[in-house]
Amino acid sequence: MSVASGLLPTRPRTGFGRLGRAAGSPLVRLIVKRVLLAIPILLGVSVLTFWVLSLIPGDPARAMLGMNATDAQVEALRHEYHLDESGPQRYLDWLTGALHGDLGTSMVSSQTMSSMLADRWAVTFELVALAFIVSLAAAVPVALLAARWPGGVFDRISMLCSVTGLAVANYVLALLLVLVFAVEVNVLPAIGYVGLGQGLGPNLKSMVLPTLAMAIPLFCFYTRFLRGDLVDQMQSEDYVDTARAKGIGPWRVLWMHAFRNSSFGMITIVGLNIGTLVGGTVIIEQIFALPGLGQLLLQGINTRDTVVVQDLVIIFAAIAVFANLLVDVLYAVLDPRIRYGSH
Amino acid sequence: MRRIANVNRKARLLGPLAALLAVAMAVAACGSSASSNDGKGDAGAQVGPAQSGGSLTVLEDASFAGGYASGLDPATNTTGGANLPQMQSIFGGLFLLRADDDGSNAKIVPNQAESYAFSDGGKTLTIKLRPGIKFSDGTPFDAQTVVWNMLRDTSSPCSCAPTWQLTKKDPIVAKGDLTVVIHMTQPNGALISNLPISNVNWIASKTAFQKLGAAKFKVAPVGAGPFTVVSDQLSSELVLKKNPNYFKKGLPYLDKLTFKSIGGDQPAYQALEAGQADAYEGMSTSPLITQAMKNSKFTVTLGPATSPYVIQLNTMKAPFNNIKARQAIYYATDFDAISKGLFKGSDLPVSESFTAPGGLFYHEKVPGYLHYDLDKAKALVKELGGLNVQLGTTAIYTANQVITALQTQWEKAGIKVTTKPMQLPQVIQAFTGGNWQALLQTAGAWDPAAGVGVAFRFASTSPFTGVKDPKLDNYFLQAAATTDSAQRDKLYQQAAKYIAQKAYAPFGIAFTPANIVAKGVHGPGLTTPIPALAVNTQTIWDEVWREQ
């Protein structure tokens, strides 16, 4: 509290007062600033998506109706989906609808986007969330152990595993995992999604292999990144020497000091990975026959359903933007210098 | 565009992965017991009697039979020709293609229809319906409803609408409760042959459509087929249960039938191996078919061959606007060797025209067909002063193998060959832009005038042809415009001879996809071969059963 504000008479603790104080807090100011910054980014992404999709040669209405359709039928479909309007007008129509919660209707299935999203979002969300949780939960202890004895046996083994894991594409890994755990050992399902409504156990069992297919490459990447950063901190930072000089044990220095600093880099990487990970669901959902958004996007591309494709691309982009927003906020929470804008 | 969608059968999302994982599968399979599985399914085996009950999970390739983003309403399903499993299960069909257990004697038989007859020189088709059929919602399956369906289908802007040449006045009318009369301006020789893969074959409940509305009906349609919809997530999973109102007594055998869409042959095979599904229709990755044949868990059924490979040559531009260059390709091509080398043990037939042993109007030999003769090929190449060819195909495992083999053969004749596997959109672009020299594709169908028929590859009006020849067009038009089988046979033979004489395109192996089915599951089309009318075989789902 500043000196000036301390001299003011105390006001009753009303809701407005709390809101006012909250609004005045550096963290809230930062969040508001970042959210405001995210708006033009999202608008830019949506404009770009519209523009790129409009560059695809051919008429989506003609492609959908085929060679047999008369010009009048094609024109009717173009009108129904506003394809006869100018690009900017269509964009404005879409934006107006989106701001009112109407993302349009699929040109192919005639289902509303909101109903399709409602059916599918939970699958993709669960897949991405589990992949993050598993990869981070595994990467942190492995990286700590490797960084504790750099160049040691554990470090070398983890390095070998990480490099191998990074070299294998996730779709190949998916098929290998199925081969081992579903075909040979036969302990996990190869395909299909069991909803949470049918029990947490069956649900998690159905998600193990897809999650591993997405999480293993991430785990390898996080492990290498975190281990490198930790070793760097432990070997070259003054605060580590100071801590050691104070007699703090090596594990405590690693966990309480070096890891806290390294977590900044990790947060950045995790934030950047979210977009990639959501994109990765396109293939993984196809292999494991999971009815999620990735599968829907691929179907939209295959059937040239521009409404589905543009909505999903924008949604995926929005997820990436908000993930980065979250990263910025986390920075601020972890580092007061950022919160107060001193750096 | 349904034809393009049919061709898309070959363009799988994960096709290239199949080869990669085939090695791993082979290693894994070393421990599994071998069995003699000749690809003939239940043909010749003692199975049955059929048992009622149980459920079945069937996998369908998401990029073909498992893809039905436009829903399952016959009038608007743009991929109905590919979605035969789902459509037949829900709607049954006026007609079906059936064959003997060994795949021979295939013919179109009435199903919900009782009979049909052409009159007026083939311009009028009268279909009599089987009496006593009800839709699963209890409403009657009568001529008025069939007419409503057919008019809706034929006037639909959907690419799935049939291209019937209907009269303007009273094109399709009901006569009484059980007779439907279709009036055409000209005969259509392939109309009946094409029906089982046409959306017009699947009759929907008008009452249910009006009650549900178009959007809901395409997700949960109501028909008079053996099964009714329990749940449906488009292009993902369709769960069906036995239709209690089904018109065939004692059928269907299964209580529950689930179709799941999956991203290609490799994941499907692994899911089958893991026991997660009971069948996969239309496996086309040859190493996996071979693998399945060695696996005692499965019955493998290869459909009768109907569509041979064809090396389409672009006769509109150099070098193949010169007949000598085309003849050099004929002489340099040895499909018999490719069949023996690449498809060991499969005994694939090699065709000399656009038909194959499983199809109509097939003749083993075509007079004047130019056979492999390396010396003649070399001489022609020398006479031409060299020959450079770019050979493309749709990038799938089997086709890639074939063009690599062709490259080796042609180079022995002194032809310089560049191979170019392409994704389907690139292939379409090459065709429509005319920017191609030689493309390995498939030609023909069970009936050459139906499905992805011969005209698709050879008629001047098709964007997917390398030939523009009015004489050839005339053969096809005449053959399609008569219902006289003998006359059609004669015309197709003349067309095949003419193609050989002009060296328009060498034909080759007739490769067919396979059904991989868990032991103990049986059914016509699934474990006995039935020719594919277009690309995939039609399984008769009401007769599919599993040992209890």
Detailed description of the structure:
The complex is a heterodimer of chains A (343) and B (548). With 343 residues, chain A is mainly alpha-helical. Chain A has 15 helices and no strands. In chain A, helix 7 runs antiparallel to helix 12, helix 9 packs across helix 12 and helix 10 packs across helix 12. Chain A starts with a helix and ends with a helix. The N terminus of chain A is likely disordered. With 548 residues, chain B is α+β, with helices and mostly antiparallel strands. Chain B is 29% helix and 19% strand. Chain B has 17 helices and 19 strands. In chain B, the strands form five sheets. In chain B, strands 8-9-10-1-11-17-12 form a seven-stranded mixed beta sheet, sandwiched between helices. In chain B, strands 4-5-7-6 form a four-stranded antiparallel beta sheet. In chain B, helix 10 packs antiparallel against helix 12. The N terminus of chain B is likely disordered.
Which key phrases capture this entry?
heterodimer, A: 343 residues, mainly alpha, 15 helices, globular, disordered N terminus, B: 548 residues, alpha+beta, seven-stranded mixed beta sheet, four-stranded antiparallel beta sheet, 19 strands, 29% helix
Write the layout of secondary structure elements.
The complex is a heterodimer of chains A (343) and B (548).
Chain A: H1 3-7, H2 15-24, H3 26-55, H4 60-65, H5 71-80, H6 87-99, H7 113-148, H8 153-167, H9 170-184, H10 200-236, H11 238-245, H12 250-287, H13 293-302, H14 306-334, H15 336-339
Helix pairs in contact in A: 3-14, 7-8, 7-10, 7-12, 8-10, 9-10, 9-12, 10-12, 11-12, 12-13, 12-14, 13-14
Chain B: H1 2-7, H2 15-29, E1 55-61, H3 84-91, E2 95-98, E3 107-110, E4 113-119, E5 124-129, H4 143-154, E6 172-175, E7 179-183, H5 191-194, H6 206-212, H7 214-217, E8 227-233, E9 237-242, E10 256-262, H8 265-273, E11 279-283, H9 286-293, E12 298-302, E13 309-313, H10 323-332, H11 335-342, H12 374-384, E14 387-394, H13 397-412, E15 415-422, H14 424-433, E16 438-442, H15 454-458, H16 470-480, H17 485-501, E17 514-518, E18 521-522, E19 545-546
Parallel strand pairs in B: 1-10, 1-11, 14-15, 14-16
Antiparallel strand pairs in B: 2-3, 4-5, 5-7, 6-7, 8-9, 9-10, 11-17, 12-17, 13-16, 18-19
Helix pairs in contact in B: 10-12, 16-17
